[in-house]
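Lab notebook: predicted structure, single chain.

Context: the supervisor wants predicted structures on file for every construct in the current expression panel, including those that have not yet been purified. This is the next one on the list. No modifications to the sequence; it matches the entry in the shared construct table.
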Amino acid sequence: MDSLTEARKYMLTSPEARTFVESYMRKVLQILLEQVPQKIGQMEKSCVQESLLQGLLICFDDLNFNRDAASGDCAVLGILAMILNKKMQFYKGSKHGWNNSVSGLPEVRTHFINKFKSMHGFGHLGAYFEARVGTASFPSPTEVKLLLDAARDAVPGSKFEGDDDTKKVIEDEIIRVSKAVMKDMEQQSEDALKKISLHDDLNAVRWSLQNIFQSLIGSRRKETYEFYDFCRKFSLKLITSQSLPLKLYGWETVNELVDVSQDMAPPPAEFVASGAGIDFVNGSYKYSAKIGEDGFVNPKNDHTYEYNTPPENEPSGKSRKLTLFKCVMRSQQKWWFISEADEKQPGTDKDIDYYQQKSKKNEENFPPSTGWITCRSAGIDPSPFLDPKGLVVPPGEEYNTMEHQMAKWAIENKVVELVLGSSIHREIVARSTRLITFLVQMCIKDEPSNDARKFPNLVPNQYCLNSDHLNLAWKTCASKLDAAVSAEVYELIVVILPHLPNELAVDLLNTIRNSCHDSLFEVGEFCFTLAASFKDEGIYLSDEVRSVLLTLLWSVLTHPDASTLKCYDEVKAFMTQELRVEPNGTQQRQVFLDVCKEALAKNSTCTNCQEISALRMVRLTRFILEACSREQAVRMVATNDNELATLTFDELVAYLRRRTFHESHSLIKKVSNFMGHFF
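Prediction complete. Output recorded below exactly as produced.
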């Protein structure tokens, strides 16, 4: 402790003191940071803390002295990062699985961070970083990550005791550090990025930056949005690089950005409940949690909604307050409730619970629309349906959320075209599913804005997946370039198909059907992939889309070369499954049977038709009948004076006639050849 005190006193004037600091201070402080507080005495503990403080002050002095690039580099910056490293033993205590009673002193690290912050250390650090952006002197990713973690813990929280001006200064200094790191990342070459990403250092720095801006979003939304704009630009740099490892890493960052944008989605302004067995539960539940001065909601807030029933509908003439809220149970499972809170003890077991919902992982932020359970104590079946309406955002910001910014970035930079274009790669296609599914969801994200006249530039559902993207996906499959790539694209289309708006789904399936003539194998493989997915997942399709899908499957089964497909039987079984889906199944089966009857009638009068095709239509007639209910099958056979049976018999007679004709013709030809040879 004394040696560090003296070193600080003379470090900037004495070569010997600087040599001591640069050669030995790290070793000394590392030994002290490896101490377990509960295994040393109070005097030793105080000695460790005072020594670490002197080390922090030495680092601050040297950082301040070398802020500008011209003055040299701070040789002890790595020691500062070590002193502020929350994983050091003195702060965090025992390793996992050891005696849990042995714990560190995290408050000591917090004290050092506050000390560094009070001296405007993060402002000096930001200036130091700025002077070295894009140079070899910029600190290593490991040091940067540790210093960013300390900056994150320095962000003023809700319990900050200083004034607003002081808070703003602290935030500005932390943002300055972060922006310098972001700027250096932007200027890194591909070779440098490859080296960093191999050791996961790039990921660590990126997550540390995100933690900072997530903490700042409540007070610095503009800067937080600017950070995510940087993230999108940086991701684009990665996915457009020449290095496949960097491209793949870039797609990981894109998927993370999609998840973050959805996690940060503003809550609905209200939920309209309908269909509940208890009539007074049906109504409009308005957002009732805290809204910031800027009109936004902190994404970390718990969202609650309230509905005051009309007094005239109540027997007592007094309005009843119902609450829609989330509750964390003792098991840490999150449940949503529709309840009437007790006036004296709200949030206790004295509340009257009407309906509840055990949330799934992706339903923890907002209450789900369906799947509610009727509470036995007070609820009455059926449970309600909740329809979300609007967003809790300032007027004019409905289509400028993080989700909209993410979608706009993807569409304007033609990211889907990058995935499915000339440089397509199966690993990239596999990693793009998350983004493309997100763009599908954005097709129906928006409602017409109530402020359309005031904000004429607001266009709902402007940035989303479109028919050109889907046609490009299928064009890639039909190009026959690479079977492995096509297989990934089949999987991609199958994943997004159930989520597509009807118009897009119908256009896609019609495009695939129209390519049957030239790309039967690819169409068959797609149908086979679709069949496997439906079998495993039980996917829902609208009646309109299912009707077009059945037409596609029928085109495959009736194709002249259908017998060459290895997946023919699987496609046939898949069509049987979809034909049996009611209420439209009955009508669809009749449509296809009419096609069979038309073909049978044509073949019964044909003398030179292809026997393979004729036999296939006979078998498909049987196939359609087997897909029918017994009642419908009997009705189909017996209508119009047993027309179907007559057509089938006529086709059999025609087949025998054609066979006899061909056999006679073949015999005459053989005799003619023989006689010609003889004479």
